[in-house]
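User: Structure please.
Assistant: Input sequence and predicted structure:
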Amino acid sequence: MRVGAAALAGGIFGAVGTLCFFLAFSTDYWLVASDNCGPYAWPTRITPTGEKDANGTEIQVVEVVTASPPFLTLHHEGFFWRCVFQVEPTAHAVLATLFTNQPESKICVHGYLFPLPVALGQVPHPVYDATAVFRGFWTVLIILGLVAALAGGFLLVCGVPFISHKLYKLGGAFLIAAACLFLLVLLLYVLWMEAVEVKRYVLQERGETCPQAQVSVLYGLSFMVAAAGVPLELVSGLVFMLVGRALCSSK
């Protein structure tokens, strides 16, 4: 009876944890950032001075017009997509990225190599930095973690109702491995956010036109969901390991 209750609790924890991993993988809200650079070039004003040079050409002074853009550019991205759209300056970055607040003017590009910069033009792109290969492990680890969680769940389903203690132990080991892999995913992402110049990655080519742009970077909802799934998956794996040991000792 106790083994059955423990298996039920472990199954609930594992199902919720795997669902969190799947949502974190399939949604594009790991990185949420906003900037005031604007997607367009600023106009210039040409002012004639009335003076002429030695060749008789009238001298003109070119002044750069620096006006604040009326909108903020909002970025959100994950494994599949990198999206950019404009919002009001008073809008909250996280709330503006919810599914119910998506504007029609949103532009999205494929982001399968996230968090590597999206190369548009020459290759290698000048935006790539020395940590590009290191950050590329994020993509590999998140796929391996999701596969391990699904494999562990499949093995545990095959072990019902308490047919083989080996399946329970193996399924629990896969769930623990999935939790560890997603923990590495979170640590790599935090390291990338804190140690790398994310402002340069967010602005990309636009950073050359407005070096004084203000960039706000936040951890998105996908990151929070993945963080919530790690302890659930770990507890589920440990419970099924203990269930497998209890079934082995009872035979």
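The chain has a mean pLDDT of 76.
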